[in-house]
Specification:
Blueprint (H helix, E strand, L loop, with lengths): L5 E6 L7 E8 L2 E9 L3 E6 L5 E6 L5 E7 L6 E8 L5 E6 L5 E6 L4 E7 L5 E9 L19 E2 L4 E6 L4 E8 L4 E4 L5 E2 L6 E6 L5 E6 L4 E6 L7 E7 L11 E7 L5 E7 L3 E10 L2 E9 L5 E6 L5 E6 L4 E8 L4 E4 L4 E2 L3 E7 L1
Antiparallel strand pairs: 1-2, 1-30, 2-3, 4-5, 5-6, 6-7, 8-9, 9-10, 10-11, 12-13, 13-14, 14-15, 14-16, 17-18, 18-19, 19-20, 21-22, 22-23, 23-24, 25-26, 26-27, 27-28, 27-29
């Protein structure tokens, strides 16, 4: 795999700003290359074989857009756009072949399937599945809120639904271009947990489910991905911290498979978990400040030595170094100023 030279960042634009931007990565420095005006591109994914990204515009009458990134200077070239069929798309996931994208609509309560061509052309929605259910948190769980989608295999898709306290499972039917619900595979979460994002162990059939509303991390045994099993759940906060006022945001597994990281908004921290004894049995090793306000998405550089955290409310991206022996993160550089960054992806 080529060393990533560029990062693409999606930012909220409600207080101004362009939306999409590319940056050259050199050690811990992040240098702006190009920007593109897009409304609230709050999440994006990188095509697995082609040099372009797909982003969702988190607005009413949601849409998805594709952009090519120039190999030499990181400039952005808009390729295509399409409607996603519902309001408030907050997440997009490309399937492992790059032929399809699954879009989660937080506000609309549905997931949609788009087709993706190798030249960046988008079409859809080909299919849209409406979710059902609610939870005990009247403010956040009065209706279903699909928050993300994750391909566990080439065809199985897990969708954490914050409003329904469930992980809904679909099978991508490529022939019919439909998402087929697999009701027997649904994961029921703790009432009020609010499942949001997922990350997977690189070598073992284990998933780590981040629950937004109670700031916890749930370990899933995926030995049979059609029958996921909840193993254990851990707090992402220090024992003496009241979880009220804190909501979790994002989770990733270190490339070595021995560490899991997850961010807390409100407490404005990043929690570290060790998985050295067993991927199914994690232990929290550290919770440290992210040196910014409202940490959202973060990205682990493929070399495993650097972590870049996006802060929506302090308008910064902050770099950290990872000490694999100690299992801790330490600040290693200055903050990069950028308006309301919420998603960062490396492009090789």
């Amino acid at each position: 795999m080529n060393e990533p030279e560029f990062a693409v960042v999606g930012s909220y634009t409600r207080d101004g700003g362009d939306g999409l931007s590319t940056h050259r990565i050199d050690g811990v420095s992040i240098t702006l290359c190009d920007t593109a005006r897009e409304e609230d591109p709050s999440f994006l994914d990188v095509h697995p074989t082609e040099r372009f990204v797909v982003a969702v515009n988190e607005r009413e009458n949601g849409s998805a857009v594709s952009y090519r990134i120039d190999d030499d200077d990181g400039s952005l070239d808009r390729l295509d756009a399409t409607g996603t069929g519902d309001d408030g798309p907050c997440h997009v996931a490309l399937d492992p072949t790059g032929d399809y994208a699954v879009v989660s609509h937080y506000a609309g309560g549905s997931v949609a399937l788009l087709s993706v061509s190798s030249d960046g052309a988008l079409d859809g929605p080909l299919d849209r599945q409406e979710h059902e259910g609610s939870g005990p948190n009247d403010d956040r769980q009065a209706a279903p809120h699909p928050h993300s989608a994750w391909f566990v295999t080439d065809s199985l898709v897990y969708v954490p639904d914050l409003g329904a306290d469930q992980v809904v499972v679909y099978e991508l039917d490529r022939r019919a271009e439909r998402l087929r619900p697999l009701g027997d595979a649904t994961v029921d979460c703790e009432p009020g947990a609010g499942p949001r994002h997922l990350a997977f162990h690189p070598n073992e059939p284990v998933g780590y489910l981040l629950n937004e509303l109670d700031a916890t991390l749930t370990v899933l045994d995926l030995t049979d991905p059609r029958c996921p099993v909840v193993e254990e759940t851990h707090s992402m906060l220090p024992d003496d911290v009241d979880p009220n006022g804190t909501i979790a945001a994002d989770v990733h597994v270190h490339p070595d498979g021995e560490h899991v990281f997850a961010t807390n908004r409100g407490h404005d921290s990043i929690a570290s978990f060790a998985t050295r004894d067993s991927p199914l049995n994690v232990s929290r090793t550290d919770v440290r400040p992210t040196d910014g306000k409202w940490p959202r998405n973060f990205a682990i550089h493929p070399d495993g030595e650097r972590v870049f955290v996006c802060h929506q409310h302090s308008d910064t991206i902050v770099p950290f170094g990872f000490d694999s022996d100690a299992g801790t993160l330490d600040r290693i550089g200055g903050a990069t100023a950028l308006g309301a960054p919420v998603c960062l992806r490396f492009v090789a």
